[in-house]
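We close this part of the discussion by returning to an individual protein. Part of our work consisted of pairing the sequence of a single chain with a tokenised description of its backbone. No coordinates are needed to read the tokens, only the vocabulary itself. The amino acid sequence and the backbone structure tokens for this protein are reproduced below:
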Amino acid sequence: MKHSPENPAPEDAEYRKKIEPVVCYPTDNLPGYDREFFSLAREHLAKVDEVVVPPRDARTFHVKAGQFFRIVSIEGPQVGDLNLFNAHNLSERFYSGKTRALHGTHVSTGDSLWSSFPYMRPMATVTHDTLDWYGWDEFGGSVHDVIGTRCDPYTNSVLDGGDYHYCCHSNLTRAMVSETGQQAHDAEFLVHDVLNVFMCTGFMPDTKQYFMKSSPVRPGDFIEFFAQIDLIGALSACPGGDCGAKHSSEEAQCHPLKVEIFNSEMDYADRWQSPEPSSYSRTHGL
């Protein structure tokens, strides 16, 4: 706790605090990660498109179900904020909170990015991660988090005052304006909590506040995904650069990111199909 308690501990306080935790959402009944299938599918990949995201800006990209895509560090340490949408229904989008509940605070190979209610299905699955060696550091930090919401001009205004237009929320808003043709006030509502690609984060041991530290990413590193459904992605190259000091500012050295899209030469129609949306009836007891 950040503040001193105002109430005395009860006599059985230690007993209560030592009760063993229980995982909220056991994943035993989820389909397992088919490592053999994905290893075979990615043996012969042919790049069909790429998009370069400039520093302190965002771009959209399109991926068909069954394709692979990579987010690649190309010039220097840089983190990115990723949004995903169903290409045919923008109301189905990445749900970072449920992804976190299922897979933990950080994702890597074998984890999926899940979609929002009422659809609740895997949108993309991580199939390779060159930073998987990092694991957990001595501060409790790890890479590719689904904790942080995205840097934004509203929080920045509260903490620092003034307007800053190149934080990830605004970058993603501009990208969705370009993608959809909507006005900024409408496109802004499409932007949602992100996967913080390459970002190294955790919680402070005493206050449990969200922390960031310099990303271990280097040029040539990438995280790779398999698209489970047709996707529109939006990726922002964060104004925090490697997020080792401060984000939402012009102070950090920033670099571009690249998105690469691949076809697999493997015919896997008999081994894989796009997951269906949740089968829940949506009657909610009524």
